[in-house]
Write a structure and sequence with these properties.
Layout (H helix, E strand, L loop, with lengths): L5 E4 L2 E4 L10 H20 L36 H19 L6 E2 L6 E2 L15 H4 L5 H23 L4 H12 L2 H5 L5 H21 L2 H16 L3 H26 L5 H16 L1 H11 L52 H12 L4 H15 L2 H4 L6
Antiparallel strand pairs: 1-2, 3-4
């Protein structure tokens, strides 16, 4: 169907999917684009995928007994990731240990007198991206989780952009850029990038619902919302859900104006999908909400001045604009990890070039793929590998 044509679905008038051009040479181009993306993702994680090292900052343990007894002096690669060593990954492994013992691990008795474990979403135990910790060897699981996370981020970004009408190769390039963005990289082994990986799925499901309606697409929204909420970082999940809701409102109004449709069916399905997602995650959200009443969150209070400085936006194109903690030359006023918004000069140039209509979009996308592949070396991700 052509652009601007509407149709009836379940008694409602909805716009037809945006048409995407195809040619006989599309499939070989897509295959090569996927190969480039796969090699880039696997190469950035490196030898941990072969089981030769651990995709985890275990070098930080060398300063503490019993590891320090070996006498080897090891300079940690990146001390900023200590949370992943003393909390995040050990919590995953404790959940794994208890499951293998036949236990339902709702409580962890070890840290600070104990804390909830599987009863709350802190560890992401109910998320599909947690499965490697239950199915793979413990030393192999962190690298496999990162691989799945990047595959999900890349794949659903591709599907979302295809749904809104972008060609295949640019969609693959965009997925790769998103998976290697600063936020998705620097928070590795924390829950934040796992939440981020599901965001394109949510937007893809929302766009499908706006274009097609159907309860099947509402079910996709419910699944995406539940995955976001179960990954263990509520603020990022909340931002994603609010952003998707705003997108649905603006995009839905634009599609209704284009097709002169007066039906509200897709918007109702989106709302139902979001509510169902919250319901699916309620088995962990309700205990989490109850737990909030016993936590002192006063140190987390925000004011209008609680924001990143404007100069932090320089990391959008230069990740080490303020130096690097890995090279021990960081001079930024705030935490290196928390100020990262990197997507790269190439990504910005691609967006500007396509927006301005400069050059062939497919040629620009191939240039972007090549540049991202060359730039996505171990420099960013090696900080998480035990050397």
């Amino acid at each position: 169907m052509g652009r601007g044509v509407s149709r009836r679905v379940q008694g409602h008038t909805v716009p037809s999917p945006i048409p995407v051009r195809h040619s006989s040479g599309d499939r070989p181009v897509l295959v090569w684009a996927v190969i480039v993306a796969a090699l880039t993702v696997c190469g950035s994680i490196g030898v941990p995928l072969l089981g030769l090292r651990v995709f985890h900052g275990t070098d930080l343990l060398q300063a503490f007994p019993p590891w320090s007894r070996h006498g080897a002096s090891v300079q940690p690669t990146n001390e900023l990731i200590s949370d992943t060593v003393d909390n995040e990954v050990p919590t995953h492994l404790e959940y794994r240990r208890r499951v293998f013992l036949g236990d339902l691990p709702l409580w962890n008795p070890y840290p600070s007198g104990g804390r909830p474990l599987g009863s709350v979403p802190d560890v992401g135990s109910a998320s599909p991206l947690h499965l490697p910790y239950l199915l793979a060897p413990a030393s192999y699981a962190p690298g496999l989780v990162k691989l799945l996370e990047m595959a999900v981020a890349t794949g659903f970004t591709f599907l979302f952009l295809r749904r809104v009408g972008l060609d295949r190769t640019p969609s693959v390039a965009a997925g790769l850029i998103y998976a290697f963005s600063g936020f998705q990289v620097v928070w590795t082994n924390w829950p934040q990038p796992r939440v981020g990986a599901w965001i394109p799925l949510l937007f893809w499901a929302v766009e499908r619902t706006l274009q097609e309606g159907t309860t099947r697409n509402a079910a996709l929204i419910a699944a995406a919302s539940a995955f976001l909420l179960l990954e263990g970082f509520p603020s990022v999940a909340g931002y994603a859900l609010l952003s998707a809701s705003a997108y649905a409102l603006v995009r839905g109004l634009a599609l209704r104006r284009r097709t002169r449709s007066s039906g509200s069916g897709p918007m109702a399905l989106i709302a139902i999908g979001l509510l169902l997602g919250v319901g699916l995650a309620a088995f962990q959200l309700l205990p989490f909400a109850d737990r909030l009443g016993s936590l002192d969150l006063s140190y987390r209070l925000q004011t209008p001045d609680s924001h990143l400085p404007l100069d932090a936006l320089s990391t959008l194109v230069i990740p080490d604009a303020f130096g690097s903690p890995v090279r021990d030359n960081y001079f930024g006023g705030l935490n290196y990890i928390e100020i990262q918004s990197f997507i790269g000069v190439t990504a910005v140039a691609l967006a500007l070039s396509v927006s301005a209509g400069a050059g062939n979009a497919e040629e620009i996308a191939w240039y972007g793929l090549a540049t991202v592949m060359l730039g996505a070396t171990g420099e960013h991700l090696a900080a998480y590998v035990d050397a």
